[in-house]
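ok posting inputs for the copper (II) ion job
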Amino acid sequence: MIRRSLGALAALFLALGTLLAFTGTAAAATITIPIDSQNGSGISGSATLTDLPNGQTRVDITVTGFQGGTPSPAHIHMGTCATLNPAILYPLTDVVSGKSTTVVNVTTAALLAQPHAINIHKSAQEATVYVACGTIAAGAPTGLPSTGGGGMAQQPTSFLPWALVAIVGTALVAALGVLRRRAAR
Ligand SMILES: [Cu+2]
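and the output
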């Protein structure tokens, strides 16, 4: 009787932990990726992806190093910066004075599920010249210090603590069961 209820309690804990893990994943709504200079442009910065509730993502680009005020086309492409597919997947607002904000019709999770990259072209006239690029990958949430390394990690950072809660909770309940069984002898 006790063992059965303990088993049920352990299952409940595990279910709760799993639920919290998913909730935690959904809550990790903002990721920041570095935008690195290409072809000696000296242009670099970062892009922030904010998961909006209606299945869209807001992309905010902030870069420095531009010479002059020519608008620079920016897009999301398939592939990484190293293996970029030249076809434009999602056009972004031209980068002007180092800034660009666009809402795209794709979830952040979908962008993270496959290799994607944000690239910036020199100008409409010189679109074949890439000046900066950032591979979209899960990173530290905005406003929190980066844990360093693991820029390619696809696992949302908030997943681990809740998974830990589930594991520790299950272990605790199991240990309690063993102790009770010993006490019953
Ligand atoms: Cu492009």
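notes: The helical segments are 2-27, 108-113, 159-184. Residues 30-136 form a domain with the Immunoglobulin-like fold (CATH 2.60.40).
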